Automatic annotation (TrEMBL):
The keyword Protein biosynthesis does not apply. One of its GO terms (molecular function) is DNA-binding transcription factor activity. Keywords: Arsenical resistance, DNA-binding, Transcription, Transcription regulation. PROSITE patterns: HTH_ARSR_2. NCBIfam families: HTH_metalloreg, PRK10141.1. InterPro entries: ArsR-like_HTH, HTH_ArsR_DNA-bd_dom, HTH_MetalResp_TranReg, WH-like_DNA-bd_sf, WH_DNA-bd_sf. Residues 1-90 form the HTH arsR-type domain. This is Transcriptional regulator, ArsR family. SUPFAM superfamilies: Winged helix' DNA-binding domain. One of its GO terms (biological process) is response to arsenic-containing substance. The lineage of its organism: Bacteria, Pseudomonadati, Pseudomonadota, Gammaproteobacteria, Alteromonadales. It comes from Shewanella psychrophila. It comes from the Bacteria.
Length: 115
């Protein structure tokens, strides 16, 4: 992935917030991101697909649900950039984290939205 491709991905608010939430939570499914971002399933899925297509995210299917996580094999410069963005922008996703946690503890969230 080139720097131009990477920063174009981050230039969209939905993709940036989704990525920061995934970094914060380690792994999220579409339904969790819908709750956190208050966005529709097609919009969230479209943006996740773009990030997956470039290799920024990996997905894991569990039944009918798809969980997304950051690709652990990204170049070091991307990992460093993502770490800096994440550490220094917690306030950017603070309301989204509140929305996400309204779903309850992770096992409860998985039972509620993903089974």
């Amino acid at each position: 992935m080139t720097a131009l491709e990477f920063f174009k991905l981050l230039s969209d608010e939905t993709r940036l917030l989704s990525l920061l939430l995934i970094i914060e939570e380690k792994e999220l499914c579409v339904c969790e991101l819908m709750q956190a971002l208050d966005e529709s399933q097609p919009k969230v899925s479209r943006h996740l697909a773009q990030m997956r297509k470039t290799g920024l995210l990996l997905d894991k299917r569990q039944g009918q649900w798809v969980f997304y996580r950051v690709n652990p094999e990204l170049p070091e410069w991307i990992n460093k950039t993502l770490a800096e963005i994440s550490v220094n922008n917690k306030v950017l996703i603070s309301n989204n984290i509140i929305n996400l946690h309204k779903m309850g503890d992770r096992p409860e969230r998985v039972r509620t939205c993903c089974n």
